[in-house]
Request: fold
Amino acid sequence: MENTIIRLFPEGQREFWRQTAACQQEIQEIRLRAGKPVMIYMGGRELFLNRQGFFSDSPQEAARVTAEELEGLLGHICHYSLYAYEDELRQGFITVKGGHRVGVAGQAVPESGGGLRTIKNIAFMNVRVSHEVKGAANAVIPRMYGADGLKNALILSPPGCGKTTLLRDLIRQISDGNPYGAGLTVGVVDERCELAGSFCGVPQNDLGMRTDVLSACPKATGMLLLLRSMSPRVIAIDELGSREELEQLKSAAACGCRILATAHGESAEDLERRFGIESRELKRLFDLTVLLGKKEGRCVVRQYLERDNKETAGGDGEC
Reply:
């Protein structure tokens, strides 16, 4: 597999980052803050990088990055054309080759009308390393199908419990076909470029051979566009977050599309409180709710909730 982490950094810095890049498959995040210790999140642990680029438990021994180094790193990531990446910077992140997402923070520059024009004087960067885990949905995929075919499903999870990884692999298996159902055309609205990890419009992750992706587009708008242009049998979105998005999902379902979505929360009640809707409305929309959690540091399925109120334990199956 190509090491896409090492290429994030300018040539003169790559020796320092070599050990980190070698652990690409295990690393979740690289945190860089001007004047602060370089931090790595890997295997559920918080580590530091010392001045030689080796992992350390000591913040006192940690290397520190300067604002000038962050400016140079951002320039390298943007191919020294910040103007070309202005739209992405306005959203607070840049997606790079390999599907990794580089989040940025600093001084916001507002528009006169109240929007955000860009972010400048970047002093904080967070590299979220993309992990494509084929087979992550193996334990869940049998529950996704019923007598009428694919179910409308919601994956509900606290942060960091693998909901995006699970959704990504569900999309791939539903698109390619699996022992429980033939392959279906899937339309994915990838607003934050995390599912497909698109770079210049080309997905870096495998979402299946029958999947069409609309990247960096608001979910509510994107669902409508895909329904009009690509005739999907399934619509998939990550991080359902507004009433408008929920209404558009309902419209897609009314058009005969199957729907897949994720949302933050630890229970169905969390989602109901967020949207201020009755539980019966959710039950009409989703045939299946998959509740995720963690056990001994592992991401697991805690519970399956069927539309008919049947509740079954997840069996702590990894996802």
